[in-house]
Amino acid sequence: MADTPTGGPVLAIVETGRGDYGLQPLLKARESGLRPLLVTDDLSRYATSQAARDLIERTVHAIVPADTRDSASVTRALRPYADSGELAGVLAVIDYYVPVVAETARDLGLPGLDPRAAHIARNKLRTREVCAEHDVPAPEFHRATTRTDAVDAARSIGFPCVVKPLTEAASIGVRLCRDADDVAAHFDELTASPVDMRGMPKPGGVLVEEYLTGYELSVEILTTGRGPQVVGVTDKALTAHPYFVETGETFPTQLPDAVRDMAAGAALDALKAIGHDFGAAHVEIKVTADGPRLVEINARLGGAQIGRIVQEATGLDLLRETVRLHVGQEPDLTRTRTAAAASRYLTAPDSGVLRGFDGADLVRRLPGVLAVDLYAAPGAEVRRARSNADVLGHLVVRSDTPAEAARWAETAALMLTPSTTAAPC
Ligand SMILES: Nc1ncnc2c1ncn2[C@@H]1O[C@H](COP(=O)(O)OP(=O)(O)OP(=O)(O)O)[C@@H](O)[C@H]1O
Ligand SMILES: [Mg+2]
Questions:
Q1: Considering every ligand atom, which ligand is closest to the CA of 96?
Q2: Are 312 and 400 within one domain?
Q3: pLDDT truncated to tens, each residue of the chain (425 aa)?
Q4: Which residues form the domain of 71?
Q5: Do 222 and 316 reside in the same domain of the chain?
Q6: Are 198 and 18 in contact (CB under 8 A)?
Q7: Based on the domain organization, do 220 and 314 belong to the same domain?
Q8: Model pTM score
Q9: Does residue 134 lie in a domain region?
Q10: Both 326 and 349 in a single domain?
Q11: 3-class SS of residue 101
Q12: What's the CA-to-centroid distance between 425 and ligand 1, angstroms?
Protein backbone atom coordinates (compact mmCIF):
# COMPACT_ATOMS: atom_id res chain seq x y z
CA MET A 1 0.00 0.00 0.00
CA ALA A 2 1.13 3.53 -0.73
CA ASP A 3 2.46 5.90 1.88
CA THR A 4 3.87 9.38 2.14
CA PRO A 5 7.30 9.56 3.71
CA THR A 6 6.07 11.75 6.52
CA GLY A 7 2.89 9.88 7.25
CA GLY A 8 0.18 12.48 7.71
CA PRO A 9 -3.17 12.19 9.43
CA VAL A 10 -5.37 9.23 8.56
CA LEU A 11 -8.87 9.60 7.09
CA ALA A 12 -11.10 6.53 7.17
CA ILE A 13 -13.49 6.33 4.23
CA VAL A 14 -16.28 3.88 4.97
CA GLU A 15 -17.22 2.21 1.69
CA THR A 16 -17.41 4.33 -1.44
CA GLY A 17 -19.12 4.55 -4.80
CA ARG A 18 -18.53 2.23 -7.71
CA GLY A 19 -16.28 2.97 -10.65
CA ASP A 20 -14.22 6.12 -11.06
CA TYR A 21 -16.62 8.08 -8.89
CA GLY A 22 -15.81 5.93 -5.88
CA LEU A 23 -12.06 6.32 -6.31
CA GLN A 24 -12.23 10.12 -6.13
CA PRO A 25 -12.48 10.42 -2.31
CA LEU A 26 -9.38 8.23 -1.93
CA LEU A 27 -7.45 10.35 -4.40
CA LYS A 28 -8.68 13.57 -2.86
CA ALA A 29 -7.64 12.47 0.62
CA ARG A 30 -4.19 11.58 -0.67
CA GLU A 31 -3.90 14.91 -2.55
CA SER A 32 -4.83 16.67 0.70
CA GLY A 33 -1.85 15.13 2.47
CA LEU A 34 -3.90 12.50 4.28
CA ARG A 35 -3.47 8.75 4.45
CA PRO A 36 -6.80 7.22 3.38
CA LEU A 37 -8.08 3.99 4.85
CA LEU A 38 -10.76 2.19 2.89
CA VAL A 39 -13.07 0.47 5.35
CA THR A 40 -15.07 -2.15 3.48
CA ASP A 41 -16.82 -5.47 3.79
CA ASP A 42 -16.11 -6.32 0.16
CA LEU A 43 -13.14 -4.89 -1.68
CA SER A 44 -14.17 -6.64 -4.90
CA ARG A 45 -16.96 -4.05 -5.23
CA TYR A 46 -14.30 -1.46 -6.09
CA ALA A 47 -11.35 -3.49 -7.40
CA THR A 48 -13.23 -4.24 -10.59
CA SER A 49 -10.35 -3.88 -13.06
CA GLN A 50 -6.57 -4.00 -12.98
CA ALA A 51 -6.51 -0.19 -13.28
CA ALA A 52 -8.80 0.19 -10.27
CA ARG A 53 -6.77 -2.34 -8.25
CA ASP A 54 -3.55 -0.46 -9.10
CA LEU A 55 -5.08 2.86 -8.16
CA ILE A 56 -6.37 1.54 -4.84
CA GLU A 57 -2.95 -0.03 -4.17
CA ARG A 58 -1.19 3.28 -4.92
CA THR A 59 -3.60 5.48 -3.01
CA VAL A 60 -4.85 3.68 0.02
CA HIS A 61 -2.79 3.49 3.21
CA ALA A 62 -4.61 0.33 4.29
CA ILE A 63 -7.73 -1.64 3.52
CA VAL A 64 -9.61 -2.12 6.78
CA PRO A 65 -12.07 -5.02 6.71
CA ALA A 66 -15.18 -4.50 8.84
CA ASP A 67 -18.89 -5.12 8.79
CA THR A 68 -19.70 -1.67 7.48
CA ARG A 69 -23.41 -2.11 8.19
CA ASP A 70 -22.57 -1.93 11.89
CA SER A 71 -20.88 1.02 13.61
CA ALA A 72 -19.61 -1.19 16.47
CA SER A 73 -17.65 -3.24 13.93
CA VAL A 74 -16.30 -0.13 12.16
CA THR A 75 -15.37 1.49 15.48
CA ARG A 76 -13.57 -1.68 16.58
CA ALA A 77 -11.66 -1.88 13.32
CA LEU A 78 -10.60 1.77 13.54
CA ARG A 79 -9.82 1.80 17.26
CA PRO A 80 -6.08 1.02 16.84
CA TYR A 81 -5.71 4.03 14.50
CA ALA A 82 -7.61 6.21 16.96
CA ASP A 83 -5.61 5.00 19.96
CA SER A 84 -2.32 5.73 18.19
CA GLY A 85 -3.51 9.28 17.52
CA GLU A 86 -3.21 8.90 13.73
CA LEU A 87 -6.93 8.86 12.91
CA ALA A 88 -8.17 12.39 12.20
CA GLY A 89 -11.54 11.68 10.65
CA VAL A 90 -14.09 9.34 9.14
CA LEU A 91 -16.19 10.00 6.05
CA ALA A 92 -19.05 8.48 4.05
CA VAL A 93 -19.77 9.56 0.50
CA ILE A 94 -22.52 6.98 -0.01
CA ASP A 95 -25.90 7.48 1.61
CA TYR A 96 -26.15 3.97 3.05
CA TYR A 97 -23.16 4.53 5.38
CA VAL A 98 -23.99 8.01 6.70
CA PRO A 99 -25.47 6.77 10.02
CA VAL A 100 -22.66 4.25 10.65
CA VAL A 101 -20.07 6.96 10.03
CA ALA A 102 -21.87 9.44 12.29
CA GLU A 103 -21.95 6.87 15.11
CA THR A 104 -18.32 5.88 14.56
CA ALA A 105 -17.22 9.53 14.65
CA ARG A 106 -19.10 10.03 17.91
CA ASP A 107 -17.68 6.85 19.45
CA LEU A 108 -14.10 7.73 18.49
CA GLY A 109 -14.39 11.42 19.37
CA LEU A 110 -13.93 12.57 15.76
CA PRO A 111 -15.70 15.38 13.91
CA GLY A 112 -19.04 14.21 12.60
CA LEU A 113 -22.75 14.66 12.06
CA ASP A 114 -25.13 14.18 14.97
CA PRO A 115 -26.11 10.47 14.65
CA ARG A 116 -29.77 11.34 15.22
CA ALA A 117 -29.75 13.68 12.21
CA ALA A 118 -27.92 11.04 10.17
CA HIS A 119 -30.58 8.42 10.93
CA ILE A 120 -33.42 10.82 10.14
CA ALA A 121 -31.89 11.80 6.80
CA ARG A 122 -31.17 8.19 5.83
CA ASN A 123 -34.74 7.05 6.35
CA LYS A 124 -37.25 8.79 4.09
CA LEU A 125 -40.11 8.04 6.48
CA ARG A 126 -38.25 9.61 9.43
CA THR A 127 -37.41 12.62 7.26
CA ARG A 128 -41.07 13.06 6.38
CA GLU A 129 -42.22 12.67 10.00
CA VAL A 130 -39.70 15.10 11.45
CA CYS A 131 -40.21 17.66 8.68
CA ALA A 132 -43.98 17.43 9.17
CA GLU A 133 -43.49 18.13 12.91
CA HIS A 134 -41.54 21.27 11.93
CA ASP A 135 -43.95 22.40 9.19
CA VAL A 136 -41.42 22.01 6.40
CA PRO A 137 -43.51 21.87 3.19
CA ALA A 138 -43.36 18.32 1.81
CA PRO A 139 -45.71 15.84 0.13
CA GLU A 140 -48.46 14.05 1.96
CA PHE A 141 -47.20 10.56 2.85
CA HIS A 142 -48.14 7.24 4.37
CA ARG A 143 -45.99 4.30 5.33
CA ALA A 144 -47.76 1.17 4.12
CA THR A 145 -46.84 -2.24 5.49
CA THR A 146 -49.29 -4.35 3.51
CA ARG A 147 -50.41 -4.29 -0.10
CA THR A 148 -53.98 -3.38 0.90
CA ASP A 149 -52.70 -0.59 3.11
CA ALA A 150 -50.61 0.76 0.20
CA VAL A 151 -53.60 0.73 -2.17
CA ASP A 152 -55.86 2.37 0.43
CA ALA A 153 -53.22 5.05 1.09
CA ALA A 154 -52.86 5.73 -2.64
CA ARG A 155 -56.64 6.09 -2.99
CA SER A 156 -56.74 8.51 -0.11
CA ILE A 157 -53.72 10.55 -1.24
CA GLY A 158 -54.88 10.49 -4.86
CA PHE A 159 -53.53 9.19 -8.18
CA PRO A 160 -50.98 9.42 -9.56
CA CYS A 161 -48.83 8.88 -6.48
CA VAL A 162 -45.23 7.97 -5.84
CA VAL A 163 -44.42 4.63 -4.21
CA LYS A 164 -40.86 4.22 -2.98
CA PRO A 165 -38.57 2.40 -0.59
CA LEU A 166 -37.62 3.94 2.75
CA THR A 167 -33.87 3.49 2.55
CA GLU A 168 -32.52 3.11 -0.97
CA ALA A 169 -30.73 5.75 -3.07
CA ALA A 170 -29.98 6.53 -6.73
CA SER A 171 -33.73 6.56 -7.44
CA ILE A 172 -33.82 2.79 -7.00
CA GLY A 173 -37.43 1.64 -6.65
CA VAL A 174 -38.96 5.11 -6.93
CA ARG A 175 -41.96 4.91 -9.24
CA LEU A 176 -45.00 6.87 -10.29
CA CYS A 177 -48.13 4.75 -9.86
CA ARG A 178 -51.26 5.67 -11.78
CA ASP A 179 -53.74 3.17 -10.38
CA ALA A 180 -54.34 0.54 -7.71
CA ASP A 181 -52.81 -2.25 -9.83
CA ASP A 182 -49.61 -0.23 -10.25
CA VAL A 183 -49.43 0.35 -6.51
CA ALA A 184 -50.05 -3.30 -5.62
CA ALA A 185 -47.46 -4.55 -8.11
CA HIS A 186 -44.88 -2.04 -6.99
CA PHE A 187 -45.50 -2.79 -3.32
CA ASP A 188 -44.78 -6.47 -4.05
CA GLU A 189 -41.61 -5.60 -5.94
CA LEU A 190 -40.27 -3.32 -3.21
CA THR A 191 -40.99 -5.71 -0.38
CA ALA A 192 -39.69 -8.85 -2.11
CA SER A 193 -36.24 -8.58 -0.55
CA PRO A 194 -35.52 -8.01 3.16
CA VAL A 195 -32.26 -6.18 2.39
CA ASP A 196 -31.37 -3.08 0.42
CA MET A 197 -28.86 -2.67 -2.41
CA ARG A 198 -25.97 -2.63 0.07
CA GLY A 199 -27.21 -5.66 1.97
CA MET A 200 -28.60 -3.75 4.94
CA PRO A 201 -31.90 -4.85 6.51
CA LYS A 202 -34.77 -2.75 5.18
CA PRO A 203 -37.40 -1.24 7.45
CA GLY A 204 -40.70 -2.87 6.58
CA GLY A 205 -43.13 -1.48 4.05
CA VAL A 206 -43.03 1.33 1.53
CA LEU A 207 -43.77 5.02 1.38
CA VAL A 208 -46.81 6.13 -0.56
CA GLU A 209 -46.55 9.83 -1.36
CA GLU A 210 -48.48 12.59 -3.00
CA TYR A 211 -46.97 13.23 -6.41
CA LEU A 212 -45.34 16.67 -6.41
CA THR A 213 -46.01 18.32 -9.76
CA GLY A 214 -43.16 20.63 -10.59
CA TYR A 215 -39.56 20.96 -11.62
CA GLU A 216 -36.63 19.87 -9.53
CA LEU A 217 -33.63 21.61 -8.00
CA SER A 218 -31.03 20.52 -5.52
CA VAL A 219 -29.33 22.67 -2.94
CA GLU A 220 -25.69 21.95 -2.15
CA ILE A 221 -24.77 22.85 1.43
CA LEU A 222 -21.78 22.42 3.71
CA THR A 223 -22.47 22.75 7.41
CA THR A 224 -19.36 23.88 9.26
CA GLY A 225 -18.68 25.37 12.69
CA ARG A 226 -20.16 28.56 11.27
CA GLY A 227 -23.47 26.89 10.44
CA PRO A 228 -24.87 25.79 7.09
CA GLN A 229 -23.21 27.43 4.07
CA VAL A 230 -25.22 27.28 0.84
CA VAL A 231 -22.75 26.55 -1.96
CA GLY A 232 -25.39 26.86 -4.64
CA VAL A 233 -28.51 25.58 -6.31
CA THR A 234 -28.46 23.05 -9.14
CA ASP A 235 -31.02 22.54 -11.92
CA LYS A 236 -31.88 18.85 -12.28
CA ALA A 237 -33.39 17.09 -15.29
CA LEU A 238 -35.12 13.73 -15.15
CA THR A 239 -36.31 10.97 -17.47
CA ALA A 240 -39.95 10.46 -18.34
CA HIS A 241 -42.34 8.76 -15.94
CA PRO A 242 -42.89 6.32 -14.35
CA TYR A 243 -39.22 6.40 -13.27
CA PHE A 244 -37.19 9.36 -12.03
CA VAL A 245 -33.70 8.83 -13.34
CA GLU A 246 -31.45 11.86 -13.38
CA THR A 247 -30.55 12.91 -16.91
CA GLY A 248 -28.45 15.94 -16.09
CA GLU A 249 -27.66 18.94 -13.96
CA THR A 250 -26.72 22.55 -14.54
CA PHE A 251 -24.86 24.65 -12.00
CA PRO A 252 -25.66 27.29 -10.99
CA THR A 253 -29.38 27.20 -11.67
CA GLN A 254 -30.67 29.22 -14.63
CA LEU A 255 -33.68 30.30 -12.61
CA PRO A 256 -34.20 33.79 -11.20
CA ASP A 257 -32.56 34.66 -7.88
CA ALA A 258 -35.93 34.70 -6.15
CA VAL A 259 -36.56 31.03 -7.04
CA ARG A 260 -33.00 30.09 -6.12
CA ASP A 261 -33.34 31.77 -2.73
CA MET A 262 -36.73 30.19 -2.08
CA ALA A 263 -35.32 26.72 -2.78
CA ALA A 264 -32.28 27.39 -0.62
CA GLY A 265 -34.54 28.64 2.19
CA ALA A 266 -36.66 25.47 2.02
CA ALA A 267 -33.53 23.30 2.12
CA LEU A 268 -32.16 25.16 5.14
CA ASP A 269 -35.49 24.78 6.94
CA ALA A 270 -35.40 21.05 6.29
CA LEU A 271 -31.82 20.73 7.59
CA LYS A 272 -32.71 22.71 10.68
CA ALA A 273 -35.73 20.47 11.30
CA ILE A 274 -33.62 17.31 11.37
CA GLY A 275 -30.79 18.90 13.38
CA HIS A 276 -28.16 18.70 10.62
CA ASP A 277 -25.08 20.12 12.30
CA PHE A 278 -22.06 18.95 10.33
CA GLY A 279 -20.87 18.07 6.85
CA ALA A 280 -22.18 18.07 3.33
CA ALA A 281 -25.86 18.01 2.45
CA HIS A 282 -27.58 17.64 -0.90
CA VAL A 283 -31.22 18.60 -0.49
CA GLU A 284 -33.69 17.96 -3.29
CA ILE A 285 -36.60 20.34 -3.78
CA LYS A 286 -39.52 20.37 -6.20
CA VAL A 287 -40.79 23.79 -7.13
CA THR A 288 -44.56 23.43 -7.48
CA ALA A 289 -47.38 25.87 -8.20
CA ASP A 290 -47.74 26.16 -4.41
CA GLY A 291 -44.07 26.85 -3.78
CA PRO A 292 -41.06 24.70 -2.89
CA ARG A 293 -41.60 21.20 -1.47
CA LEU A 294 -38.98 18.92 0.05
CA VAL A 295 -38.22 15.76 -1.94
CA GLU A 296 -35.46 14.47 0.31
CA ILE A 297 -32.42 15.28 2.40
CA ASN A 298 -29.15 13.52 1.64
CA ALA A 299 -26.62 14.08 4.43
CA ARG A 300 -23.73 13.75 2.01
CA LEU A 301 -22.26 15.38 -1.06
CA GLY A 302 -24.35 15.51 -4.23
CA GLY A 303 -23.65 12.37 -6.25
CA ALA A 304 -22.89 11.69 -9.90
CA GLN A 305 -21.21 14.71 -11.55
CA ILE A 306 -22.55 17.41 -9.21
CA GLY A 307 -19.20 17.93 -7.46
CA ARG A 308 -17.49 18.18 -10.82
CA ILE A 309 -19.87 20.81 -12.24
CA VAL A 310 -19.74 22.86 -9.04
CA GLN A 311 -15.97 22.85 -9.33
CA GLU A 312 -15.97 23.70 -13.04
CA ALA A 313 -18.37 26.57 -12.40
CA THR A 314 -16.83 28.03 -9.25
CA GLY A 315 -13.35 26.60 -8.77
CA LEU A 316 -14.57 25.31 -5.41
CA ASP A 317 -13.67 21.66 -4.80
CA LEU A 318 -16.45 20.56 -2.48
CA LEU A 319 -15.08 17.07 -2.03
CA ARG A 320 -11.70 18.45 -0.94
CA GLU A 321 -13.31 20.91 1.46
CA THR A 322 -15.57 18.20 2.88
CA VAL A 323 -12.53 16.00 3.45
CA ARG A 324 -10.85 18.91 5.24
CA LEU A 325 -13.90 19.44 7.43
CA HIS A 326 -13.95 15.76 8.43
CA VAL A 327 -10.36 15.87 9.65
CA GLY A 328 -10.98 18.95 11.75
CA GLN A 329 -9.65 21.57 9.35
CA GLU A 330 -11.46 24.75 8.32
CA PRO A 331 -12.94 24.36 4.83
CA ASP A 332 -12.30 27.17 2.35
CA LEU A 333 -15.44 27.91 0.35
CA THR A 334 -13.90 30.75 -1.66
CA ARG A 335 -14.90 30.79 -5.33
CA THR A 336 -12.08 31.38 -7.73
CA ARG A 337 -14.16 31.37 -10.93
CA THR A 338 -17.50 32.70 -12.14
CA ALA A 339 -18.60 30.32 -14.84
CA ALA A 340 -21.21 27.59 -15.27
CA ALA A 341 -21.20 23.89 -16.05
CA ALA A 342 -23.64 21.17 -16.96
CA SER A 343 -23.65 17.39 -17.02
CA ARG A 344 -25.84 15.01 -18.97
CA TYR A 345 -26.31 11.28 -18.35
CA LEU A 346 -26.84 8.93 -21.24
CA THR A 347 -29.52 6.30 -20.94
CA ALA A 348 -30.90 3.74 -23.39
CA PRO A 349 -34.18 4.77 -25.02
CA ASP A 350 -35.27 1.10 -25.10
CA SER A 351 -34.19 -2.22 -23.75
CA GLY A 352 -31.92 -4.18 -26.08
CA VAL A 353 -28.32 -4.68 -27.01
CA LEU A 354 -26.20 -1.54 -27.15
CA ARG A 355 -24.91 -0.81 -30.66
CA GLY A 356 -23.00 2.28 -29.65
CA PHE A 357 -23.25 6.00 -29.06
CA ASP A 358 -24.07 7.80 -32.29
CA GLY A 359 -22.07 10.94 -32.88
CA ALA A 360 -19.29 10.34 -30.33
CA ASP A 361 -16.93 11.83 -32.93
CA LEU A 362 -19.08 14.94 -33.44
CA VAL A 363 -19.50 15.83 -29.81
CA ARG A 364 -15.85 16.69 -29.40
CA ARG A 365 -16.31 19.54 -31.89
CA LEU A 366 -18.59 21.36 -29.48
CA PRO A 367 -17.09 24.09 -27.30
CA GLY A 368 -16.58 23.54 -23.62
CA VAL A 369 -16.92 19.75 -23.60
CA LEU A 370 -14.61 18.66 -20.77
CA ALA A 371 -15.48 15.02 -20.36
CA VAL A 372 -17.23 12.32 -22.33
CA ASP A 373 -17.19 9.08 -20.40
CA LEU A 374 -19.00 6.12 -21.95
CA TYR A 375 -18.98 3.19 -19.56
CA ALA A 376 -21.22 0.76 -21.43
CA ALA A 377 -19.52 -1.18 -24.21
CA PRO A 378 -21.21 -2.08 -27.50
CA GLY A 379 -22.77 -5.51 -27.18
CA ALA A 380 -23.87 -4.93 -23.57
CA GLU A 381 -27.48 -5.69 -22.73
CA VAL A 382 -29.14 -2.47 -21.63
CA ARG A 383 -32.62 -1.49 -20.57
CA ARG A 384 -34.70 1.64 -20.43
CA ALA A 385 -33.35 3.33 -17.32
CA ARG A 386 -35.18 2.75 -14.05
CA SER A 387 -32.54 4.11 -11.69
CA ASN A 388 -29.24 5.95 -11.86
CA ALA A 389 -27.56 2.52 -11.90
CA ASP A 390 -28.74 2.17 -15.55
CA VAL A 391 -26.80 5.23 -16.76
CA LEU A 392 -24.48 4.27 -19.63
CA GLY A 393 -22.21 7.30 -19.72
CA HIS A 394 -22.01 10.99 -19.01
CA LEU A 395 -20.61 14.23 -20.32
CA VAL A 396 -19.60 17.50 -18.70
CA VAL A 397 -19.57 20.92 -20.36
CA ARG A 398 -18.34 24.27 -19.09
CA SER A 399 -19.47 27.63 -20.38
CA ASP A 400 -19.71 31.24 -19.29
CA THR A 401 -23.36 31.10 -18.27
CA PRO A 402 -25.67 28.32 -17.09
CA ALA A 403 -27.98 28.85 -20.08
CA GLU A 404 -25.11 28.23 -22.50
CA ALA A 405 -23.74 25.32 -20.50
CA ALA A 406 -27.20 23.71 -20.52
CA ARG A 407 -27.68 24.24 -24.27
CA TRP A 408 -24.28 22.85 -25.18
CA ALA A 409 -24.75 19.89 -22.87
CA GLU A 410 -28.20 19.14 -24.33
CA THR A 411 -26.79 19.37 -27.83
CA ALA A 412 -23.97 17.01 -26.94
CA ALA A 413 -26.30 14.55 -25.23
CA LEU A 414 -28.55 14.39 -28.31
CA MET A 415 -25.52 13.64 -30.48
CA LEU A 416 -24.54 10.84 -28.13
CA THR A 417 -27.94 9.15 -27.90
CA PRO A 418 -27.21 5.44 -27.42
CA SER A 419 -28.60 3.20 -30.14
CA THR A 420 -29.83 -0.28 -29.38
CA THR A 421 -30.97 -3.31 -31.32
CA ALA A 422 -33.66 -5.64 -30.04
CA ALA A 423 -32.43 -7.94 -27.29
CA PRO A 424 -31.76 -11.52 -28.37
CA CYS A 425 -34.49 -13.95 -27.30
N1 LIG B 1 -43.37 12.66 -3.81
C2 LIG B 1 -42.73 12.85 -4.96
N3 LIG B 1 -43.29 13.58 -5.94
C4 LIG B 1 -42.66 13.78 -7.14
N5 LIG B 1 -41.48 13.24 -7.44
C6 LIG B 1 -40.87 12.50 -6.48
C7 LIG B 1 -41.45 12.27 -5.20
N8 LIG B 1 -40.60 11.48 -4.51
C9 LIG B 1 -39.54 11.23 -5.31
N10 LIG B 1 -39.69 11.84 -6.49
C11 LIG B 1 -38.78 11.83 -7.63
O12 LIG B 1 -37.97 10.67 -7.56
C13 LIG B 1 -36.60 11.02 -7.42
C14 LIG B 1 -35.93 10.03 -6.52
O15 LIG B 1 -36.58 10.03 -5.28
P16 LIG B 1 -35.76 10.15 -3.93
O17 LIG B 1 -34.91 11.34 -4.00
O18 LIG B 1 -36.72 10.07 -2.81
O19 LIG B 1 -34.93 8.80 -3.99
P20 LIG B 1 -33.40 8.45 -3.87
O21 LIG B 1 -33.26 7.09 -4.39
O22 LIG B 1 -32.94 8.68 -2.48
O23 LIG B 1 -32.70 9.52 -4.79
P24 LIG B 1 -31.14 9.88 -5.02
O25 LIG B 1 -30.97 9.57 -6.49
O26 LIG B 1 -31.10 11.34 -4.74
O27 LIG B 1 -30.31 9.04 -4.11
C28 LIG B 1 -36.61 12.43 -6.90
O29 LIG B 1 -35.42 13.12 -7.24
C30 LIG B 1 -37.84 13.01 -7.57
O31 LIG B 1 -37.57 13.39 -8.91
MG1 LIG C 1 -32.99 11.79 -4.17
A1: 1
A2: no
A3: 655 445 789 999 999 998 889 999 999 999 999 999 999 999 999 998 899 999 999 999 999 999 999 999 999 999 999 999 999 999 999 999 999 999 999 999 999 999 999 999 999 999 999 999 999 999 999 999 999 999 999 999 999 999 999 999 999 999 999 999 999 999 999 999 999 999 999 999 999 999 999 999 999 999 999 999 999 999 999 988 999 999 999 999 999 999 999 999 999 999 999 999 999 999 999 999 999 999 999 999 999 999 999 999 999 999 999 999 999 999 999 999 999 999 999 999 889 999 999 888 899 899 999 999 999 999 999 999 999 999 999 999 999 999 999 999 999 999 998 999 886 54
A4: 10-110
A5: yes
A6: no
A7: yes
A8: 0.96
A9: no
A10: no
A11: helix
A12: 33
Fill in the amino acid letter for 140: E
Distance 140 CA to ligand 1 centre (A): 14
DSSP, res 329: P
Tell me which residue has its CA closest to atom 15 in ligand 1: 171
- Which residue is closest in CA terms to ligand 1's atom 14? 171
> Residue type at 68?
T
Check which CATH number belongs to the domain holding 329 and give it.
Answer: 3.30.470.20
Distance between Cα 238 and ligand 1 center (Å)? 10
| Number of Cβ within a 10 Å radius of residue 226 | 10
| Closest ligand by atom to 213 CA | 1
Other C-beta atoms within 10 Å of 212: how many? 21
Q: Which of 167, 183, 210 is the last residue before a domain boundary?
A: 210
- Identify whether 130 is part of a domain: no
- Cα–Cα nearest to 347, from 290, 407, 417: 417
Residues with CB under 6 A from ligand 1: 124, 139, 162, 164, 168-172, 174, 209-212, 216, 238, 244, 284, 286, 295-296, 298, 388
Which residues make Cβ contacts (< 8 Å) with residue 397, sequence separation at least 6? Answer: 341, 342, 343, 344, 366, 368, 369, 370, 405, 408, 409, 412
Q: Cα 138 to chain center, whole Å?
A: 20
Are 82 and 45 in a shared domain? yes
Max Cα–Cα distance, the chain, nearest Å: 64
Question: Per the domain annotation, does 132 fall within a domain?
Answer: no
Same domain, 233 and 309: yes
* 187 & 235 share domain: no
**What is the distance in A from the centroid of ligand 1 to the CA of 248?**
14
> Based on the structure, what is the number of domains in the chain?
4
Query: Is the residue at 124 inside a domain?
Result: no
Ligand nearest, relative to CA of residue 236: 1
Q: Residue 389, SS3?
A: helix
By the CB criterion, residues less than 5 angstroms from ion ligand 2 are 284, 296
CATH assignment of the domain containing 185 = 3.30.1490.20
Distance of CA 295 from the midpoint of ligand 2 (Å): 7
Q: Which of 210, 237, 255 is the last residue of a domain?
A: 210
